[in-house]
């Protein structure tokens, strides 16, 4: 693209106080209803910035989110950042018992490749691998933020909710065109994998969300998904209790209970997903197509949603006393005739 140059101060050229002020503008956090942590990052800080201000970030931001039951990482407004900051964000969401090779970056000007690995140690604590993480994206999410989103998605560490990302570049360089006042913006670095297998990356095409929704509705959708996922253990427990108490093929119950206890619900993001997964699993294990789970929406009443029995009340027919009325009732319920060949 051709554009006039824009000068933006580099964080590393600022004093520590100025660096801190800039960093606070690009990072916001709070704890939402349901004990869901919310972290909005609008610019990915560099390794140098994190090394200087890491203690502040851990004390003032990260520690306040550690006790939450799930985390929303909002990258909808993140259009860039520093490649060297990628390992820090990934590492805080990755278990510390192993190091993982998450990407290889090729830089054209220097003709070099750099491998990106998770960090063996981090300042403070890592976010528990047992807790859900949702990444919010928009059509403006670009560059380094896209790479972080892609890595977390391929690791199956996060559910991506929102819009397909822009499909930008990891690093851009402005080249002056002759002696004019115009500059050419050129992508100079690209991601080579390895989590995506190396054959395809997100650059050019963007990162496709797990759950597509307009960016302005992404947070609301994410919270609904987390509410469902928070209810999953209770749903499975009640299903196990129902099988133990009511299922007639008693000899198959232990196998069904074992299957339910070991099911992987990491990809479940809706009631429809849950019902499909449960039915496929239960029917395969039991070999019984009659064993069905279904979701029933609560009915609305004049005073609000009805709480209690979801099934319609049973209608018990009454038998009329008059003979003619009884005959009419029988005729309405049965049709009798003799077919050709004396077939009743």
From TrEMBL:
Pfam families: Peptidase_S41, Peptidase_S41_N. GO terms for biological process: proteolysis. The keyword Magnesium does not apply. The keyword Chloroplast does not apply. Keywords: Receptor. CDD domains: Peptidase_S41_IRBP (cd07563). Residues 15-214 form the Tail specific protease domain. GO terms for molecular function: retinol binding; serine-type peptidase activity. GO terms for cellular component: cone matrix sheath. PANTHER family: INTERPHOTORECEPTOR RETINOID-BINDING PROTEIN (PTHR11261), RETINOL-BINDING PROTEIN 3 (PTHR11261:SF3). This is Interphotoreceptor retinoid binding protein. The lineage of its organism: Eukaryota, Metazoa, Chordata, Craniata, Vertebrata.
